[in-house]
DNA sequence: CGGCGGCTTGAAGGACGTCAAGATTAGTGG
DNA sequence: CCACTAATCTTGACGTCCTTCAAGCCGCCG
């Protein structure tokens, strides 16, 4: 599945979730688990499927939604990688997170009823749009949909708090790499080899570091043979060592 | 309502939400808005009220729930102040937040199905316990309950991300003081004069600072006549100045 | 009154940021 | 396919904000 070209660089297909058919959802979708299990009646399932709009492609730099826009829908990433970020009143950007295929964005917009952040495509991106009004109606009818929504929301609280702690640059970087690894693995992609689609500056911003520090930490990890880095291609050589450093930030 | 004793210290009643009667909820409760508006039928309202257990008092230091415990209920603080904090595998504590009367805790436990943090009483605390299973059942029947839950969850994501950003000690402290001010005001307490129930070390930890830094920043703010501090009693003298410093962290 | 925990204040050190220069890559048009 | 430009990334030197360490202070309670 992965090949290496003559320069020694990895060639990997751009991660994309399958489209799903009329009845089933994209296999990697966060809503899959709410519907795929037996027991959900077909009509309800079809209802959920009907309210989904497939949108894309977005080119790198294009915005899926904008900070301040009225909230109307949440989105599941179907292909590509999305970055969410806020710009404060002094114009400083803060990267909230990076979102892989199968992950859901926009949940933080429910309360303020406006998107509190931008969602920007980092490469070619496809998304599924779920009208939130329709989703809540369905949630009242199908317990599993309601339960899935509650869990997704709750999980997002946990994600946000993980990075709120006080940790060294090494700890945060190790945790970041392992987190991406786990999330790629969860969606069926390689866990030890993936592409850092985002520029160093975005990684740095997200981890509250300078991009220079990101460079230095990555170099340190390379020197210790914990990872291999070639531009934006990354290979994890010693996840155990990364774990000993980064475990403080990771879910147990 | 506020008096000053002969030592010059503020005397203020310990903030506590009223108990509510058979039909109505505590006036400050986060669930109040889901039910108080006309249009919700009395039976449903009574159902919600029935599933609430009033618990307390907890003395300072007592735990409402513990990290790792199986998730079963969310709690609304009815009186006193609660601190939530995680202890990582190296024994380091991280203070996630402080929770005033009317605020809800435990929402971050839905996904992992275990409480990911401790909830500790900082003074004498009373809470309302909502069985989450019963609440979700009710949420499927009463749209406003479902909506309130979604909003509470979504708001918690926002709260968690606010502190994740990269800011100076002054910015974080200013934002912290204003945030408490706003939250006390929302619940009907004084906005410019309140008690910092938590020790400096907890404030410091929550803001990712050393407690020494907290001392120094508070002193700086005092010298500039922005606040008045007497032990744990705090008075805000110039909220405008605090706002110019702290606005980067605050919701617009 | 005396001990103890929390708070304050000062001095020194460290982790990371900032600045600046160069190297590598990607993008673009010929 | 190649040349040229711009953006991104790396690396080093230096500065700074905050932490750490240490000592003294204050309020509280036996």
What distinguishing features does this structure have?
alpha+beta; disordered N terminus; 4-stranded antiparallel beta sheet; 8 helices; globular; Jelly Rolls; 252 residues; Arc Repressor Mutant, subunit A; 23% strand; DNA-binding; homodimer
Topology:
The structure is a homodimer of 252-residue chains.
Chain A: E1 3-4, E2 10-11, H1 32-35, H2 42-50, E3 52-58, E4 63-65, E5 73-79, E6 82-87, E7 93-99, E8 104-105, E9 118-121, E10 125-131, H3 132-141, H4 143-162, H5 169-186, E11 193-195, H6 200-206, H7 211-223, E12 227-230, E13 233-236, H8 239-246
Antiparallel strand pairs in A: 1-2, 3-10, 4-9, 5-8, 5-10, 6-7, 6-9, 11-13, 12-13
Chain A binds a DNA duplex (30 and 30 nucleotides) through helix 7.
